[in-house]
Design a protein that fits this description.
357 residues; homotetramer; Chorismate synthase, AroC fold; 5-stranded antiparallel sheet; 9 helices; alpha+beta
Chain lengths: 357, 357, 357, 357
């Protein structure tokens, strides 16, 4: 079902090349100010065509609010926002109904929807649908900022390039973090951006693609958000995270590294600092028993490489039911990791808002 | 909220040392046969006290069905099952209200529930509550077995010990897999059990603990289960997985390894085998666009080391608000990974059943 | 929350004088044909300006499908449809923020939404929002018609004018019922339309208004739809019915008349007819224990008189917090009962569809 | 589905003659005091065997709290309470599988559950299951009382016996209302109890039964509870009300009388009293636009006559598929209206609590 949330309720709709995509956001308090400039800035971060290694499809991504908003404030009725799909190339998608694209949803989608799904541009499975999520996340982010809660993300890893972790920071380090929301290749460490840009351009040239790991942190959460069953903070964040196309894994705190160490190393020891209860390490990424501990909430997700590559690939021709060769042409992202970052921040903001209201 | 599911609805309740714990399972078709022997066998797999390295607390784990069951079949009314808590040591838990146990839920739970939560044995945060989930999973498993769907799990990794992956198998290999449900230390490879047992006994002796990685596979799924938004198969499985205490990460297919390879290596190429559409590799773990592809569904979760260790730890005394030392005595698991395995299988079965009905 | 449904999920949005209103319909099977002509005909039944006694505001009620629909069929993605608000008079609504209109939602809405709600035309509380529900209902109706299920409604009562009840018919009487969907004042008995028209015109002239009772019937339902707890068919129908502005009561079968008779008269006695189990009477309106019995599902709702009348009324001036006089001018319906009828049919169709899928 | 509620979540289970029935109540704030004496007093009001006209089956109705409660307070974990079924006569229910009881759920239940439902005592359809709802309602009532909210009900009508309406009272009249919770035949007017008792005894003697109308009022609600779509206060109350067996209609305020009057008579005119905004009449029963207005919330429900009567009835023998005669023997209520009253108060309290938290 395309709805999500308890206190905030999202209903997402749209297809990549249909009339429009959008989202209904219910549960926002009447009188909430919407900072349209902030929202535009935020959704602009997932726009393509800004870098040499992303697709050149340039959507304007202009939103139109249909309801729930008047004179700068929410009215208490559901906020519905839509994005018209304007820049859709009328290329022949019929071919894609025949030759299954590896790592795309084509095959299971065709079975599930009995061939009636809109396959153009990935249809409802398109990453473009996350534009609506990003809008909702921008709204949530603004509300959280009012409460002092801050969310950041950065690229933690692409192939051999590895950045520092947010786990090394016990609080927001504005000097280090301020650029994360500005850069199209956001790293905590200064020297990684250029190196990565060069790598991605090389990959794009070769017609290939690459994924990566995004780390996200949320600072200044109150203690006790979440539940043990079944809505642990980890459950809720992961539920939304895996709605983002290309996410294939998620870990909280040190995550999979918990299998490399002993309990005595894993345990985050409590101590008092300025009369506040903190832990010396933050291996758990700010969550224990499904509840926020007050330490920074830190998690990372892995993004698989963009499936669309211009290299020839073996596949199945489902019309003739025979093995065949697929050659995808057209504009593609060599790496969508930077464009997914605001989406990950968005789903974090939405989850936290749903818990905090 | 302690409810989960759309077509099946679970409501879980109970505390480790309260009167009883249990679960209400709604949505089972009337006339479903319950194989009580299979259920007992399944829940027995998460029982403690069977190995030298697990806690010696021996619960009998006897269930009592209160409703929804008559003459061997479900009646269509909600199935409520309870487990009485009998073997509860009356040790002094007051101390734990004062000295926060690292990596347990004590601190955020005390804040969230304003000190009213039942702290004995972890209360509602106890791993013991998963006993109810395991019962529900056993019921689901039996229904799925009728449809030819099979679920297995094994230990993928503990410290340096690493097992083969299910990803190497395109279908159920009964010879290799049949022991997985029998052994208390289930590996695909034959020679790992003894080695691991020795490791765990050594760790237990040292008063320490260890976590590990569990891999789970589900065979013979139909194509097209799941949704793109917001209930991808990955979303639903991860949501339940993170309700299991100690799970800190989840990855589907090769998961975090997607950040190490190029698109041309990551893409699972389609081909025809016996007129069926399959993929040469299964890097995506049987899920594309949130939908099952018909290839084996494979994922792994990481379990953090048992927080309760008998080594002295620094912590905070919240009564006197000062730094202090905690010494936990009593029976503990050196490694709960084997006991968590049936729980992971259970949540997989429940998720699949909720999709397939 | 502005969402409803289990197998079908509706998300409604919009305000009477905002940009647009609409609905997201999720859960429709991919490949469902939409008969746009039928839909237009159905939603046209709730349009104003067709009769001498309804408001002269003439909306065109043209819908635009934004997603989930392609080449005549649903795609499996959520179906989003919007209606732009074009014919909105720019009259001074500021006055209404000051003088509370009796029997409208003004006062509690102002408190709930802290004055931020869009008050123009009733905003989100406007009957106009049911246009979206009517669209959804038209879609549902078409799907049900395919399965042989038929839904009708008629005016059962306005002041002293009383029609026959559907309870007198054990099955669809096409001769009697075919006009119900055509007439703007639909009665089963032939001679009531003219009489009622005259009454309503007289009431309109006097600046007053009137309500009435609508009876709705659903034929050819399978046996066993619904549940005892908490989603009885009566629960589900009434839940949606009370979302329709002006509905203040609902009764199933003979409803409140059950307090006038003895058990021996109330009991619907079973008998066999053509090897089918039927009941001699249908006092229960086709529902027992919350489940459909296979007999016609019959219920009626009462609609209160349109609150907007042109007669002067006492009220409170909330700006100056003093008693004051309100004079409402402008176009109004003397009786909205005929316009509510398709909405009641719509919510019935939606409820049945949600149960039957 | 047997779950209900947003902020409070109820999961009900059990069958009349099974092991036990009960309810899981989730969402209660940790530290909520439970007044067990009040709860016992409240659930005792629905107990049978207290009057000459109710069934002589005397259940003890003793509850056992399994979880979520410790040292007089809720712990924050789900509260699970069960009632064991002890006083179940082992009479032959096989007969009832063959001869359909008119106005009971037997027939549609047998179809829905394919004959696997527990038919003894009505199984999951039994009014006895409302015992669990009554417990939950008693808890809710106590929480609401703390906030000054008071709920009362009385018998409004049985055959020709008619009581005053709560609509005549603008606030709680303690002198008049205090007996309503004590009497087994609660009327506002003093002289109706004896008369009704005589009537009911006469009906019981004749082997027949009777229904009636219950009116319920809720005082001191804040303004603005509820929503326009789809969770109007009327929607939520009616949803739960129709889960109570035998309820066949509900009306808010003057309800069906709205079809008898003009808008000028129907409109509740605002005025100021002690600087508070009130209405001169309360035809809307304290709800406008789905929201509470601050005036007393008043609604009434109709209860159909008890289906089980000792008079011979025609019916169908579904084993032999022939018309047959049914003679029900055993203990029955001549009128369940008094026993349903606390259940109606309970569902009101639960609805209000779900809105107010």
């Amino acid at each position: 079902m395309n709805t999500w949330g308890t206190k905030i309720r999202l209903s997402i709709f749209g297809e990549s090349h249909g009339e429009a995509l959008g989202i209904v956001i219910d549960g926002l308090e009447a009188g909430t100010k919407l900072n349209l400039e902030n929202i535009n800035k935020f959704i602009d971060r997932r726009r393509a065509g800004k870098s040499s290694f992303t697709t050149s499809r340039k959507e304007k991504d202009e939103f139109r609010i249909l309801s729930g908003y008047k004179d700068g404030h929410t009215t208490g009725a559901p906020l519905c926002v839509i994005f018209e799909n304007t820049n859709t190339q009328s290329k022949d998608y019929e071919n894609l109904k025949i030759l299954l694209r590896p790592n795309h949803a084509d095959y299971p989608a065709a079975i599930k929807f009995k061939g009636f799904n809109d396959i153009r541009g990935g249809g409802h499975f398109s990453g473009r649908i996350t534009l609506a999520l990003t809008f909702a996340g921008a709204v949530a982010m603004d509300i959280l900022e009012e409460k002092g809660i801050k969310i950041f993300s950065h690229i933690k890893k692409i192939l051999d390039i590895k950045d520092k972790s947010f786990l090394e920071f016990k609080e927001v380090d504005i000097d280090k973090f301020k650029n994360l929301k500005e850069s199209s290749l956001a790293f905590i460490e200064d020297d990684l951006e250029t190196k990565t840009k060069e790598l991605l351009e090389k990959i794009k040239l070769s017609g290939n693609s690459v994924g990566g790991e995004i780390e996200c942190a949320c600072y200044n959460l109150p203690v006790g958000l979440g539940s043990p069953f079944f809505d642990s903070l980890e459950s809720k964040i992961s539920h939304l995270a895996f709605s983002v196309p290309a996410v294939k894994g998620i870990q909280f705190g040190i995550g999979f590294d918990f299998s490399n160490i002993l309990g005595s190393e894993a345990n985050d020891l409590y101590y008092l600092e300025d009369d506040k209860i903190k832990t010396k390490t933050n291996n758990n990424g700010g969550i224990l028993g499904g509840l926020s501990t007050g330490m920074p909430l830190v998690f990372s997700v892995v993004i698989k490489p963009t499936p669309s590559i211009s290299i020839e690939q073996e596949t199945v021709n489902i019309k003739e039911m025979k093995n065949d060769i697929l050659k995808i042409s057209g504009r593609h992202d060599a790496c969508i990791v930077p464009r997914v970052m605001p989406v990950i921040e968005a789903i974090t903001a939405l989850t936290i808002l749903d818990e905090i209201l």
